[in-house]
Amino acid sequence: MTPQTIKVACSNCNLRELCMPMGLSGTEMSKLDGLVGTRRKIKRGAALFSNGERFNALYAIRTGFFKTCIATEDGRDQVTGFQMAGEIIGLDGIVGDRHMCDAIALEDAEVCVMPYDRIEELSREVPALQSHVHKIMSREIVREHGVMLLLGSMRAEERLAAFLLNLVQRLHSRGFSQSELVLRMTREEIGSYLGLKLETVSRTFSKFAEEGIVEVKQRHVRILDTEALRSIVNPPVCH
C-alpha cells in the first residue's frame, strides 16, 4: 500500500503532547513539523509492518488500535503488545534494521510516518527530541519487564486485573472514561498476551462479573470496582 501524502503539522495535532516532546520553542516546533511527511491508513486486519521487513520509520498512531505479535516455532501467533492512539510503534526495528514482529491493525487505523533517518538528523538540532525518543524506548523496556513479571509470577485473576487496569489507565490519559472501555482485541488475543488459555480468560471475566467487579457485554467492559481490581493485583498486606 502506498502511503498517502498528506502534509501533517504536528503543532496542530491534538495528540501532540502524547507523542512529541513538551515545551518546545516555536522554531523547534516548526522543525519538527517537517518530521512527519505522510500519513498512512491501515485497514482492520492489515499489517503496518511485518517480521523481517526492512526498518526505516517509527509510526505515531493517530487513530485506531494495533497488536504486535511474533510467530512461534509451532506456528502460533504470540501477541507481544497492544498499542493505541498517541503511542509510538516500530521501535523493535532499530536494533537490527529489520522489524522483529508483525504489527496488525485491530480496527481501521491511521498512523503518522516518521522516517528514522530524519529523527536522527533532527535529534542533533532539537535535543528534546532525542531525550523524548530515549524516554519512549525506556517506557517500552519497563513495559516488557512488567509483562515478564505478569507471566512469571501472577495467577490468572492477577494477570487479567493488571491488564484491565493498565488498559483503562492508558485510555484515561487520552481523555476517555476511567471506568468504561471497548476491547478492540478478542479474548483469544488477550489470552495469548497474558499467557492464558481462552477458556481461562472467559472464566476469569465471568468470575469478576459474578463478584460485581466488572460488567461485561461482549466487548464492552465497565469497571464497577476499581479498588477490588487493584487489591487483586496488590493484595493488602496482613500485619
What does the model show?
- Strands 1-8-3-6 form a four-stranded antiparallel beta sheet. The protein has a four-stranded antiparallel beta sheet with strand order 2-7-4-5. Strands 9-11-10 form a three-stranded antiparallel beta sheet.
- The protein is globular, with a radius of gyration of 19 Å.
- Mean pLDDT is 84; it is low at 1-7.
- The protein has helices spanning 16-19, 26-33, 116-125, 127-153, 156-172, 187-194, 198-210, 226-233, and strands spanning 38-42, 47-49, 57-63, 65-71, 77-84, 88-89, 102-105, 109-115, 180-182, 214-217, 220-223.
- Strand 10 (214-217) and strand 11 (220-223) form a beta hairpin.
- It is of the alpha+beta class and 239 residues long.
The main sheet orders its strands as 1-8-3-6
Report the count of strand segments.
11
The radius of gyration over CA amounts to 19 Å
Summarize the helix and strand pattern as letters. Answer: HHEEEEEEEEHHHEHHEEH
**Class inferred from helices and paired strands:** alpha+beta
- Unreliable residue runs: 1-7
Give the CA-CA distance, first to last residue: 60 Å
Overall geometry: globular
Helix content: 25-40%
Give the biggest beta sheet.
Answer: 4 strands, antiparallel
Total number of helices: 8
Strand content: 15-25%
Instruction: Calculate the mean pLDDT score and round it.
Output: 84
Please specify the SSE layout and strand pairing.
Blueprint: H1 16-19, H2 26-33, E1 38-42, E2 47-49, E3 57-63, E4 65-71, E5 77-84, E6 88-89, E7 102-105, E8 109-115, H3 116-125, H4 127-153, H5 156-172, E9 180-182, H6 187-194, H7 198-210, E10 214-217, E11 220-223, H8 226-233
Antiparallel strand pairs: 1-8, 2-7, 3-6, 3-8, 4-5, 4-7, 9-11, 10-11
Helix pairs in contact: 3-4, 5-8, 6-7
